[in-house]
Amino acid sequence: MTGSMFLQHFTNALSVASLYALLAIGYTMVYGILRLINFAHGEIFMMGMYFAYFGIAMFHLPWFVSFIIAIIITALLGVAAERLAYRPLRDAPRISILISAIAVSYFLQNFATVLFGGRPLMFQQIPLLTTIMQLGPIRVPRLTLIVPAVTILLLVGLQFLLKKTKTGMAMRAVSRDYDAARLMGIDLNFTIAMTFFIGSALAGVGAILWGLKYPQIKPDVGSMPGIKCFIAAVLGGIGNTTGAVLGGFVLGFAEIMFVAFFPAASGYRDAVAFILLILILLVLPAGLLGKNTTEKV
User: Fold this and answer.
1) In a domain, 140, yes or no
2) Is 159 exposed, middle or buried (0-12, 13-18, 19+ CB in 10 A)?
3) What number of other Cβ atoms are within 10 A of residue 166's Cβ?
4) What pLDDT, on a 0 to 100 scale, did the predictor assign at position 292?
């Protein structure tokens, strides 16, 4: 492999890893507070792609207006899922809320099929964002550089929110101890709803960036990215936002470099995620940055 080919693959890996990190944070934020694997996160991501697509195609909104509205609606969809499907089961056995999460996932996927049809649609390409640039010996779409920059900005903003604001402090308190947080006057419903809002908004951003990079949209488009980002969250230590970012980058680089060094085996790219999951569970069950703790079930 030549140096220019390696740089080409490296920039692509950086872009894919950034997308995984954005989506993995949504998984890990919800788990950190509710101890719930939100299996509907991939489908919320999928709905975000459709919202952005129809904002331009049907309502003829400027692309930046459509993208902002799509992010907000995606965030509100996450809040609605929490309010309707998860909140009524908050005090139920954990298996009940887990089944509810799976049900929401299937409902959204089938709802999208009925509402939007099963025929694949092509996400609009924005020349300003997708123009090919020549950087020395390599040619890369501008989006390849935009994705990591957007991811870094959002992660810095998220860390500021978690560490420096009252809402962030409330989220961290609730993640430590429900009852103690309630006794300290923290509004659990609002705090949990804000967690879903932020996590789903990040999924909305990720959906738009994913659509620009991989433009085909269909009702099951969120299934594999959702699974991979769940794996990324587990790799880093689910419940740990920094770990989710690390897991996303490990997974993204592992996948792209596998394809780079073994192009004949590119059809097995998705298997890399599951192999990494098995290895991390065997060697470090709590993930790269997770803590081995005994949890009462």
Assistant:
1) yes
2) middle
3) 9
4) 52
Reading the block at residue 22, the tokens are: 């954005």
Give the residue carrying structure tokens 């899922």: 81
Domain count, the chain: 1
Percent of the residues in the chain that have a pLDDT greater than 70, as a whole number: 97
12: left (phi over 0), alpha (psi -120 to 50) or beta: alpha
The residue segments making up the domain with residue 134 are 3-283
In a domain, 88, yes or no: yes
Q: Are 7 and 138 in contact, with CB atoms under 8 Å apart?
A: yes
**CATH code at 50?**
1.10.3470
List, in sequence order, every residue forming a beta bridge with 122; answer none if it has no partner.
Answer: 216
In a domain, 297, yes or no: no
Token digits of residue 36: 């719930």
Res. 293: pLDDT tops 70: no
How does pLDDT run across 164-216, given as a tens digit for each residue? 999 999 998 998 888 888 888 899 999 999 999 999 999 999 999 999 999 99
Whole-model pTM? 0.92
- Is 85 a domain residue? yes
How far is residue 280 from each of residues 11, 21, 230, 233, measured CA to CA in Å? Answer: 25, 17, 13, 11
What angle, 0 to 180 degrees and rounded to 10, lies between the N-to-C axes of helices 166-176 and 188-213?
A: 100
